[in-house]
Request: fold
Amino acid sequence: MRLTRDDAALLQARWTDGVLLKRDVFSTVERGHFQGDAGSIDAVLRRLDEVPWWSFLPARHLFARERTALRLARGLDVGPELLWSGQRALVRGFIDGVALHLAKPHGDVAYFRSAKQALHRLHRAGICHNDLAKEQNWLVGRDGRAYLTDFQLAACFKHRSRLFRIAAYEDLRHLLKHKRSYAPEALTPSERRILARKSAVARLWLMTGKKVYRAITRGLFNFTDREGGGRRLVNDAPVLIDLIRKNPAVRDTAIVAFADRRTGVGLYAFVEADQSALEAQLRNELAAAKGPKPPEHIQVVHALPRDIKGKPRTEILQLVAMNQLDLIEPMMKSDADRAFLKDIVHQRKNLRDRFNFEAGDLNQSAN
Reply:
């Protein structure tokens, strides 16, 4: 489905392509620059012109829901500002922060306090998000505050009806599930009671509607959205990791997903080994195994970044794979971390989707 003539003309005049963030059967999302009245603005574009014909109707419905919710949420400072919207594309402001599953704010009580306040403002405006179980829809801003994104399933209400109260309750319950994961000691007795009690609608959804939803999205639409990685991250990555680890020169490996303009979702393997020339050998071994399609990129590193438990920090590796280097700096805890990551950043393989996001602080601190 093509963009309308008016949409295409405005984007050609005011939009500068940047990093592809996500592409699936419902939309294409990319980060770039939008020329506003006050100058160039860091922004995010959602467009429907690359969705297949058979998913266009649900894609347009989701698009319309997001556009309506963003219009109503203007000025609330809880999510991206709607900068422009057309018939098959919209531009929203970019929030300087990273998704909850990447930031992992363990013990950050202030963050969850701000998240509850943001949700309260959203509900006062009559908006229920309806998709807050996904950690990627919660952002940790550079200022430490909570922001929400991806309003495709949002519902807007003129009155505080029973349906509104149920949807608002479920929004809150999903927030508290994330709080339980990252700051369980901060849960209040009333919050624990909310976590223990699903609404009747939620229970019915889990027993019936969710099964139908999964059958349609994962079966008919071939769509899986675990941290934006799709089916290849869910199904192929574990098999590829096992195959790569069979090579005796490999100490460890981590695979992350990134949006790819040609294939939709690509896989990027970071392999911990001392032999820098190991990539070609691994590609031959993966091809000979006749298993899943090999990763689009394989980067051999002397050491993977790890957390305090020794697990690879895939949240940082994913940002490297996506070329969102400016988002890495706030996640660095020390100059040693910055110096450690500098070589990985400089040797990264995915250079097709580069943009003028500078990791200046990272480079300067590592020098």
Q: What stands out?
A: The longest strand covers residues 15-23. The chain is about 40% helix and 20% strand. The radius of gyration is 21 Å. Residues 159 and 321 are 44 Å apart (CA to CA).
